[in-house]
């Protein structure tokens, strides 16, 4: 049986906060990307990778920075909120990055596909690329350091006291002494 001290309740609160923030962010993204636009004409769908980014760069450095920045920042909080809502501390950084980026790419793809049914919106493959890149950058910038800090806080202190989750719990990697030996007993005839 696993005992949770103050570290366990803090982890639960952190995970709950992550879920609430994730839902709030997804609602905001849905409102920003799936509401109809009142426009006179609509551009054609962009299915050629980097064509929209090249067009943005042709508009000048300031306009390109704004448009590319918007694409990078739209889903970037998911790079932190998805692992936070997951609540796992002991996971490989590469697995966490791959899982988060894949989830964000699928979400971005879903948004792009839903936009085909919204007046004034079109599919843009560059939006998918920028959204996914933004999530990966946010994840790499925040999550490894954040998890490391939480893991250090969770470990028992060197002075023998206990802090955080896992204190007083028998761990699989802790030494547990020698293997017991049973003396051989002969079998009766």
UniProtKB/TrEMBL annotation:
Organism superkingdom: Bacteria
VanZ-like domain location: 23-142
Record's compositionally biased regions (Gly residues): 158-167
Keyword Transmembrane: yes
InterPro entries: Teicoplanin_resist-assoc, VanZ-like
Swiss-Prot/TrEMBL keywords: Membrane, Transmembrane, Transmembrane helix
Chain segments carrying region Disordered: 153-189
TM regions (residue ranges): 12-34, 64-85, 97-115, 127-146
Name this protein carries in UniProt: VanZ family protein
The organism of origin for this protein: Streptomyces ficellus
Record lineage: Bacteria, Bacillati, Actinomycetota, Actinomycetes, Kitasatosporales
